[in-house]
Structures are given as C-alpha cells and as structure tokens.
Design a protein that fits this description.
Elements: H1 3-23, E1 31-45, E2 54-66, E3 69-74, E4 76-84, E5 87-95, E6 98-107, E7 111-129, E8 132-133, E9 141-154, E10 159-169, E11 180-191
Antiparallel strand pairs: 1-2, 1-11, 2-3, 2-4, 3-6, 4-5, 5-7, 6-7, 7-8, 7-9, 9-10, 10-11
C-alpha cells in the first residue's frame, strides 16, 4: 500500500471511530439528563418585615457522574411568592445552580446518598406586587450558595432523586438595602 493510501485509510478509520463513539449512549459516559423541581420555604435576614415566603422551582437538569463525584447543572424557573399586609408579591427568576456532589452507595446498585455544594446565579425575569410591576425594586442578578443532601434510587431505566437543598443568598435581594434570603427546599428529580 502506498503512503497516501495508508494515510487516507487511517483518516477514514479515525472518522469512523469518532462517529461510533459519538453514537454511544450518553449514559455510558456518565451523562444523565432529566427534570428537577422543588418546593420550600424562605426567610429574609436583616429585613424589617418577615413574610412567609414560598419558593417553587422547575426545569431541565444535567448530571455528569465521575465515579463517587458528580457535577449537576440545572436550568430552573424559580418563583418566590409572599404576602405583606394583604399585598401578594411574586418574583420570577432564572436560576442556574451548578453543584459538585460526593455520592456514597447505601445499597450498591440501588440506593446512594449524596452531599454537595456549589454556586447558583439567578437573573430577574419579573416582579409583581398587587398587580403592579415592581421589577425595579429587586436586583437584576443575585448569587446563592446552595448546599444539598439527598438520595438517589436507581430504577434501571431512570434514576429518581430526592434532596433537601439549603440556599444562602450571597448578594442582596433588593435593589436597595442588604436583605438576603435563606431558602430550604425539598427537590425532586428524575434522570435518564
């Protein structure tokens, strides 16, 4: 075989191998996609008012398992509602939490326990109080520090997850002042 023909055959073999590798299921590489949602309660520190706030979140999620360590990124619509003196307030944000987690098998191949932490930037989408737009009263972007602990249940075709996630706000919630939110949420996930 001549040198150009060997090079051509080697190049075709490399392209074919690349196509075969990219066609392999993402799960074989430890990559899982799914949906994540949660409900909870929130309080503000350093606030003159202490409303009973109810956060709710839902959106797609992606996890990359690297043995006992995994990295999860969620793209969540996050709504917090509360009432002060009869006025209902709702703040919608886009949240992008990224957490690194350590996972430990409790029942190998079936149940595992995980703990982790990360960063969660949130961007303001809208804010409404008593039917009026109050977006100017809230920061355009805030940063949270989430800490999570939960369980994974391997269902063979999917993985169900439930975790408790605490998020401490690192930047003020309001456009003026130093009010910071503390959230405690129960999160649910289903990954494929």
């Amino acid at each position: 075989m001549s040198t150009p023909r060997v090079a051509h055959t080697l190049a075709l073999a490399l392209v074919a191998a690349g196509l075969l590798l990219s066609a392999a299921p993402a799960a074989a590489f430890g990559l899982e996609w799914g949906i994540r949602g949660g409900i909870g309660s929130a309080v503000w520190a350093d606030s003159a008012i202490e409303p009973d706030a109810s956060p709710f979140t839902v959106g797609p999620a992606l996890r990359l398992g690297l043995g006992v360590i995994s990295v999860e990124a969620d793209a969540l619509w996050h709504r917090t509602t509360w009432q002060v003196q009869g006025t209902d307030t709702a703040v919608d944000r886009f949240a992008l939490p990224v957490l690194a987690k350590a996972e430990f098998p409790l029942v190998p191949g079936l149940i595992s326990f995980g703990v982790g932490a990360g960063l969660e930037p949130r961007w303001l989408l809208s804010a409404e109080a008593g039917g009026q737009d109050v977006s100017g009263s809230f920061a355009d972007q805030t940063l949270f520090l989430p800490v999570a602990a939960g369980l994974d249940l391997d269902l063979q075709v999917a993985t169900a997850n439930v975790e408790v996630r605490y998020a401490h706000q690192l930047e003020p919630e309001a456009a003026v002042g130093d009010t910071r939110k503390h959230e405690l949420m129960v999160m649910f996930g289903l990954f494929f």
